[in-house]
Amino acid sequence: MIFCFLTLAANAYLLYSLHAKTDRILWEAHQIQNDVNDQLNSMYTQISRQKEQITDLKEYMEKSQSLFHETRADMKFRDGKLYVTAEAIPKSQSEGQQVIAGIQAGDRVYEAFLDDDGRAVLEVDVSSSLQLYFKIINGDETVTEYTDKITPAAQMEVSISSEWDGTDQLQIILDSQAEEAAGSSFGEGTFILVKTGEIHPEPGTGYGGGSFRASASLEGEAPDLPEEVPEGIRIPANRVSQGDFAIYQGDFSEYAQKKDGSQYQVYFTAETDGGLTYLTYPNPAVEFSFYEGGTSRSTSGSRMYPVFDLQKD
Question: How many domains does the chain contain in total?
């Protein structure tokens, strides 16, 4: 009896020792992991700072080597053309010196002399990419400096937000800078519904939750910038605000009443007074599905880009 008791006590002590050693090993491993994480975070921070320093140095060198204190370009769309306002301030000026602003768009070249305010407006055919440059002319000597390429659609992007007002009323909100970025006021808009699948609750999961299966989907990589407005069901988007924020509203009660489980991506498109079509891209403004026993809706911030390919000569 005493032997059994001693054996049990020895085993208990052995187990306790093993647990203590295991806890100690786990604690040490945890400390090592923390130390490694701290070292990695420190390395990442140093690398990030070095990248920033390299970027700053590169910008400084490029600026110090530039012939200009500053160059910039803004653009607006009107009557099927881009009107690019190019500005430049040369570092040195001499009597009789002239400066030309130029744009290369594919195989087409546009040039104009800067006025006394250092500004020139160039009327340019729509192109996906523009190469801006400036020429300084002093007598028989001409020096040309190229700037970064310009992507018109990206430069004229507009930020939007979306929200559901109640169950079936969708609102799109354009921020106060939208019309300035587009270079024109926005008129009435349109919601475009693209069906991507259907939601059906799996047996035993109940409605409004659990796992779902999609009976169809649209896949594929989107191009860098919108080339066309997608095909789909169109719902009017009525502009209900004329203040600093343009607000558009659409009625989706028909789909809320159907409850057929159809999943839709909703794109928003609007046309400016200048005749330029804008589209939420590459992501839809919202996604939704109304089904028996539940609703699935998403909202997010998004961006709109001009769809230049829709313009007519």
Answer: 2
What does residue 252 show for φ and ψ, rounded to 5 degrees? -115, 25
Q: Using a CB cutoff of 8 Å and minimum separation of 24, what contacts does 293-301 make?
A: 293/201, 293/206, 293/207, 293/208, 294/201, 294/207, 294/208, 294/209, 295/167, 295/208, 295/256, 296/199, 296/263, 297/164, 299/161, 299/162, 299/163, 299/164, 300/162, 301/159, 301/160, 301/161, 301/162
pLDDT in tens, 241-297: 766 778 899 998 888 888 888 888 899 999 888 788 888 877 888 888 888 877 888
Mean pLDDT over 144-158 rounds to 86
**Is 97 in the same domain as 187?**
no
Query: Does some domain include residue 90?
Result: yes
Q: Does residue 137 lie in a domain region?
A: yes
Any domain includes 244: yes
pTM: 0.63
Phi-psi region of 244 (alpha: psi -120 to 50; beta: other; left: phi over 0): alpha
State which residues form the domain around 278. Answer: 156-310
